Amino acid sequence: TAPELIRNFCIIAHIDHGKSTLADRMLQITGVVEPRAMRAQYLDRMDIERERGITIKSQAVRMPWEVDGRAYALNMIDTPGHVDFTYEVSRSLAACEGTLLLVDAAQGIEAQTLANLYLALENDLTIIPVLNKIDLPAAQPEKYAEELAGLIGCEPEDCLRVSGKTGEGVEAVLDRIVAETPHPVGDADAPARAMIFDSVYDTYRGVVTYVRVVDGKLAPREKIEMLSTGATHELLEIGVSSPEPTPSKGLGVGEVGYLITGVKDVRQSRVGDTVTNAKKPATQALGGYRDPKPMVFSGLFPIDGSDYPALRDALDKLKLNDAALVYEPETSAALGFGFRCGFLGLLHLEIVRERLEREFGLDLISTAPSVVYQVTMEDRSEFEVTNPSEYPAGKIREVREPIVRTTVLTPSEYVGAVMELCQSKRGQMKGMDYLSEDRVELRYTMPLAEIVFDFFDQLKSKTKGYASLDYENDGEQAADLVKVDILLHGDPVDAFSAIVHRDKAYAYGVMMAGKLKDLIPRQQFEVPIQAAIGSRIIARETIRAMRKDVLSKCYGGDISRKRKLLEKQKEGKKRMKMVGSVEVPQEAFIAALSSD
Ligand code: GDP
Ligand code: MG
Question: E strands within 521-586?
């Protein structure tokens, strides 16, 4: 297709404002998905995306659309909206010339509407404002058109009004994309340059690499080269997703599609890399992506120690799919061999873990998440701590913790509650603006450690779900932090150590000891649980001894009940972990490490 007839666009919005649903209608209206095959959130392929109703991976689909008798090819890239996945959004944006900025007409602008808009502006994208869900009785398109127009500097009439659910107004959106989005520009005669914006490992086809061609042309059977490593591969298949993979004779300037080289090693196809022809290679790489920086670290350990090699293999494969995931081997006294992994946030952690368990059949324990601390010792030596159990015991001069610039958007009636919450999380107020009469933007700087745990849940519950949150790195600052250890029967359990603010250490110790007391079943002997800062004990609980014979509980009872109990006990055994001489159920780890 000639570049003049191509439009590359994405859809950005706050989570749940209806991107995937609007994408569904476009697939239907352009006829690429037959009515019979249609199902909701068509592009959310992963089970976990479908169950949670959220988009994790970006998706690229090619759709035909005719305007004034000219046949255009629209490449749509659906993006995730959650704050943890901003890096996916920024990768998608770099492959597009235009974007739909979608706003729920019953909700108005939210924190990620702003964050995504700024990303789009940074990438010089043409922005088409769209109010969605106009079919809802609670929709107030007039009101929010004013808000949206005020934000991006257009007229309220310029905001399209659509319903992704009913399909109303969706054709007008497609027409507008053709009319307003610039077509891609590139040098067709130059050596090929294509940007990798996603890579997926497929059990049958090996590595599938998604690219956007900037210059030149890529064709099947050619030898291609990865510019960053110089590695060459033969192109076995090249094609477009529409939305099923469809082989083509090649991809030219501005086109978006996939490549298959038969490579099985997932590290050879890095997101952000430039693909070129091996015979006539380009010299200048395309501006890659900023490498996403992990913000939260946690240890992942197989419950069954012999799964360690399988876990490493699974992480290697996931890494290809997820540029933001980092990991290195870790050994824990309590949990054995595993990996210290870095994530963008807690949702990212949860999702990686869930994918490892589901897609690779692993049973895992994850330890308490930790941010990255910069520690300076009295002797001026400096190092990073991402694992509380590596926190130094010697003379510390200073500890610095990451802080984030936080934006909360809330209806004005909850301003007091939000301020109180932010203050309790060591937040410092930086500013406050009324976006409209009843919508307020609050800006704080806050330690990341306070945000990653349960800030979002608390924010939601204190504002009846109406507030929204976004944050970005803002460097680091010194803080008065201590390491709290948890001892079971006198042995420190490295998996439960945490670095916390001194003012909160006591509360943390009491809380953890109390939780563990309820979570760890009685043993054959008495088990003291202690929380300590260094050698100072700050909290203590005791699990009293008990005979473990569960069958004695139902003597004389019916056999099937006994058998059930036995089976339950067996099932339980599998999920037990020995910590020193104490048996700890996996659930105790998970429950103790989750906040409530
Ligand atoms: P995304 O997170 O932006 O991809 O949002 P989804 O497309 O997954 O939609 C979130 C929720 O809003 C789902 O329950 C959809 O059914 C619903 N939804 C999306 N678009 C519309 C719409 O136009 N009208 C109505 N009434 N509901 C919608
Ligand atoms: Mg979605």
Answer: 527-533, 536-543, 576-579, 582-585
